[in-house]
Amino acid sequence: MRHSTRSTQYADRTIPKISLHDFENRIDEITAQLVAAAETDGFFGLTDHGISLPEIENMFKNSQSFFELPDEVKAKVPFTSMNAGWEKNSQIRPSTGQPDRKESYQMQFGAHMDGLWLPEEILEEFKEISLDFMHKAHQVSEKLMICFARGLGFEDDYFVRAHDVSRPEAQSVLRLLHYFEVDKSVPVPEGYYRAGAHVDWDFITLLFQRAGQSGLEICPGREAATEFGIGDVWTKVEPQPGEIVCNIGDMLMSWSDDRFKSTFHRVKTPSDPVLDYYGPRYSMAFFNQPCTDAEIQGPLKKYPMVTGKGFTDRAMNRNFAALKAKRGLEGVKSEVTSVSS
Ligand SMILES: O=C(O)CCC(=O)C(=O)O
Ligand SMILES: [Fe+2]
């Protein structure tokens, strides 16, 4: 069934829920469910994944303690071309041509984070809690990687080896996000977006949200990783406590010869005081990125082989083509703030 709010068309659908309970014994059943979800909407909710609600909440508190710091302090760990660090109001989406109204802080496992952790005196235990959480998110991701490798006919550990976070070439990222509270009493200004429509270009994203802080919407229907068009029928994905919302990124779409779908999504800018959430919104996205030297090519070899680094560079170029065309190449590079999405 379809209905619309203002100019947006909505479909009443839900994304599949997949439980990782008793993973070793149920791996065939779980693989079938994951592959079916990946082949259709490219989004699914994960339960019984092994990260408890208190662990997730603890990481959200850790995230909040970072964002509560004054901007001058956060600016000591600025976003770098290594895809790590803090940015505010500076990620411009090609779909909107406007910066997302949010701040984010991206953390990695290895050398890309050198100089980008705040000292203990400023944020006690922040690094330890974050790395511990990142390792947990990586462990969940490894289970998904084994199933997707099986589904595509690769060796079980094929994707796991490509995403080895103990190597210096590792590129996986935990991104903490904070969208600012929006004033309900005045109309939202033209050109204000929480997170404009986009696809992720990682392998697979694990998104942690807080109950009640809604806004995520998805728009399935993309047929090829090389095509960048957006449909116009959206589906709301309400945050459920403890659930991880997962989505296939462009990397896995292309690595599966377009069998698995990387789907457009956004965080809606509140516009309806009755239906929408106007408060501050915190979320955390764990982007699995293969190591820079990983070789990416699907079983059918639909696309030429590309390395992890090559894929990222190409996705950056394509993702920001609209912006480059609008403003000209010069001066844009410094504003490109993420290679994750
Ligand atoms: O904050 C969210 O819920 C979504 C974030 C997202 O899609 C991204 O950062 O790529
Ligand atoms: Fe995203």
Automatic annotation (TrEMBL):
<dbReference type="InterPro" id="IPR050231">
    <property type="entry name" value="Iron_ascorbate_oxido_reductase"/>
</dbReference>
<dbReference type="InterPro" id="IPR005123">
    <property type="entry name" value="Oxoglu/Fe-dep_dioxygenase_dom"/>
</dbReference>
<dbReference type="InterPro" id="IPR027443">
    <property type="entry name" value="IPNS-like_sf"/>
</dbReference>
<keyword id="KW-0408">Iron</keyword>
<dbReference type="InterPro" id="IPR026992">
    <property type="entry name" value="DIOX_N"/>
</dbReference>
<dbReference type="GO" id="GO:0046872">
    <property type="term" value="F:metal ion binding"/>
</dbReference>
<keyword id="KW-0560">Oxidoreductase</keyword>
<dbReference type="InterPro" id="IPR044861">
    <property type="entry name" value="IPNS-like_FE2OG_OXY"/>
</dbReference>
<protein>
    <submittedName>
        <fullName>Gibberellin 20 oxidase</fullName>
    </submittedName>
</protein>
<dbReference type="GO" id="GO:0016491">
    <property type="term" value="F:oxidoreductase activity"/>
</dbReference>
<dbReference type="Pfam" id="PF03171">
    <property type="entry name" value="2OG-FeII_Oxy"/>
</dbReference>
<dbReference type="Pfam" id="PF14226">
    <property type="entry name" value="DIOX_N"/>
</dbReference>
<feature type="domain" description="Fe2OG dioxygenase">
    <location>
        <begin position="169"/>
        <end position="290"/>
    </location>
</feature>
<keyword id="KW-0479">Metal-binding</keyword>
<dbReference type="GO" id="GO:0044283">
    <property type="term" value="P:small molecule biosynthetic process"/>
</dbReference>
<comment type="similarity">
    <text>Belongs to the iron/ascorbate-dependent oxidoreductase family.</text>
</comment>
